[in-house]
Protein: MarR family transcriptional regulator
Organism: Chryseomicrobium excrementi
Amino acid sequence: MEALHLSNQLCFPFYAVSKEITKRYRPLLEPLHLTYPQYLVMLVLWETDQVSLKTIGKRLHLDSGTLTPLVNKLISQGYLEKARNPQDERQLVVQLTGEGRALQKQAESIPEQLAEVLGLNENEYFAYQRMLTDLSIKLGLTDDATC
Amino acid sequence: MEALHLSNQLCFPFYAVSKEITKRYRPLLEPLHLTYPQYLVMLVLWETDQVSLKTIGKRLHLDSGTLTPLVNKLISQGYLEKARNPQDERQLVVQLTGEGRALQKQAESIPEQLAEVLGLNENEYFAYQRMLTDLSIKLGLTDDATC
DNA sequence: TAAAATTAAATTGTGTACAACTTAATTATA
DNA sequence: TATAATTAAGTTGTACACAATTTAATTTTA
């Protein structure tokens, strides 16, 4: 077996599929004026409002170099606002505006629409999800059952 | 089930795992002075030398906006050189230099090293590869058995 | 065969990613 | 408790990724 052939790589299909998924999100997220990473930040805040940048970064595996401009964009769009944590002025606390919270309703059908555009039925969806979550745990990206 | 929870997304673990894999390639590729996308271009050329930019793009699912500067970087590093196809002057033909070809030897152990840093045994490696390749075909990224 | 359509690269602009560094606030420790 | 170490954001620089546009070469077609 030719280890250096593209067809024998594990990681190339990962890279290609991941980019393709992001591409298929694009038209679904466009009406919400969100990119995929911006959508991920909104998911975190819809789940728990008022979170520090650090915490968002931990959940999404993104650092401040990526998150600072991304959150600033969401603020300029009116979806988020920021404040400092009075207990620790280093921390930036990010929270939803009314508009940001309202956006959640519009986003509700996105997971379902995505499964549709990926052409996956429920069984396939959950099989892939389980496998990816297992690998995610194996790689140390997910350290507990709640994340 | 809360469809908008991060933990219930299929695509987030994909995104996170894909980024993590790229991160784990970094120290393996650093001695070769290659980034992961640059390594992919080298893989294509090690497999078949003298390929047009268009063809590289088709195999890697990348467009000229990404590939033009990337190939220029590899040229400035002395790994590649470019010429025009005399039969069709629109086409840029990319080929390996002696140095670029020599690099292949140094790269030979990378797939093995990667499986190691990912902590996957042979069975797991092939199981994930099969699943990813299936999904890749399902998404229309791979249209025949040779790619 | 001249004009229109298509194609391959290159270019421009926006938005991630992330390493490395800076700044300011907090915590640990001598 | 003053100093050192740590921490959270922000900044800078490099490198993708891709949409949209431009330019030049080739192919179609009227």
Observations:
- The mean pLDDT of chain A is 92.
- Helices of chain A lie at 11-29, 36-47, 53-60, 64-76, 98-107, 110-118, 122-138.
- Strands of chain A lie at 51-52, 80-85, 88-96.
- The radius of gyration of chain A is 18 Å.
